[in-house]
Design a protein that fits this description.
This protein is mostly helical. The protein is 70% helix and 0% strand. The chain is built from one helix and no strands. The longest helix is centred in the middle third of the chain and has 39 residues. The radius of gyration is 22 Å and the shape is rod-shaped. The model has no long low-confidence stretch (mean pLDDT 78).
């Protein structure tokens, strides 16, 4: 009974880690797309040149 519970617990942990890693990959792709769009679509600053789209 205990080995069966350990195997089920291990499968649950690995499934959860796999789902979390896949979700993190999607979040990373979305952040990368927003970052690249920030370089393409930059508002003009006061001097007429392209400014930074971020504040830091």
């Amino acid at each position: 009974m205990v080995p069966l519970l350990l195997v089920l617990l291990l499968a649950l942990i690995l499934f959860g880690a796999g789902f979390a890693l896949k979700a993190l990959w999607w979040i990373a792709v979305i952040v990368l797309v927003v970052w690249i769009l920030g370089f393409v679509i930059r508002p003009a600053s006061h001097g007429g040149r392209k400014g930074r789209w971020y504040r830091w």
